[in-house]
Design goal:
Mean pLDDT: 87
Shape: elongated
Strand order of the largest sheet: 1-2-3-4-7-6-5
Largest sheet: 7 strands, antiparallel
Number of strands: 7
Strand content: 25-35%
Low-confidence stretches: none
Structural class: alpha+beta
Number of helices: 6
Distance between the termini: 77 Å
């Protein structure tokens, strides 16, 4: 009778622990990804957690099919200890492993945040893109006729260096101004040792149907923005590709 009771308790206990592992591995994945942890580390932890869950489910099935399998009181203690180790590894373990892996990203992120403060960003965030990080700035500015336009700057970097800076500035077709566009991004690009040229922006506007124009390290491109068949504005893109020097 005791064996049957212990077996029933162990089955229920392991089933509950399997549910907790399933829910927590999803939460760990979401949390670690949101916090910008190394994608390799996050995916490795997820695979290990899934394997542990599969093993737990297999044990649960075997316990139902074979009354003599894992029916002692000591097995319930083993299940709980394994679950505690699982939680410990996914909290302290992953955090400690990630710290040296993320040190390079952290250093660059702090530097970019400093740029953003001097640039007077209105809104910014860091997006985890695999082995890359994307520091995204969202600003707005008033056109000469008082209309608000959007500016978005993407700064992509790995654990060693910044690889790409790309600014997109939206403007009205009839209110296009190379000087006003330059003023929206030049302070940020100055941090990377390059100067935005208003004359080249004007050349890119005149050349907007034929492609982009490159001068020194910057590539300028102006394209028209349509809503169905109606021209609603212009998009100026200024790109600094540091991978190409």
């Amino acid at each position: 009778m005791d064996k049957k009771i212990d077996l029933k308790k162990n089955c229920v206990l392991l089933f509950v622990l399997n549910i907790l592992v399933f829910l927590s591995l999803i939460l760990f994945k979401v949390y670690f990804t949101k916090m910008g942890y190394s994608s390799v580390l996050v995916n490795s932890a997820l695979i290990i957690n899934v394997i542990l869950l599969v093993i737990g489910v297999i044990f649960n099935v075997l316990m139902f099919k074979n009354p003599s399998f894992c029916c002692d009181k000591k097995h319930s203690v083993i299940f709980v200890v394994i679950f505690i180790i699982y939680l410990f590894i996914n909290t302290f373990g992953v955090v400690l492993i990630n710290k040296p892996l993320n040190s390079g990203y952290t250093k660059i992120a702090e530097e970019l945040s400093g740029y953003c403060e001097s640039f007077m960003c209105q809104k910014y965030e860091t997006v985890n893109d695999g082995t890359l990080r994307d520091f995204v700035i969202n600003n707005s500015y008033l056109d000469y006729n008082g209309v608000t336009n959007e500016v978005q700057i993407h700064t992509k970097y790995d654990s060693k260096e910044v690889l790409l800076v790309e600014a997109t500035i939206f403007s009205q077709n009839e209110m296009f101004s190379e000087d006003l566009i330059k003023n929206q991004v030049e302070a940020y690009y100055n941090n990377f040792g390059v100067k935005v040229d208003a004359n080249v922006i004007k050349q890119a506007f005149d050349n907007r149907f034929n492609g982009s124009i490159k001068k020194e390290k910057l590539t300028y491109k102006v394209s028209e923005v349509y809503d169905e068949d109606t021209l609603v504005g212009l998009k100026t893109t200024i790109t600094l590709d540091l991978k190409q020097g």
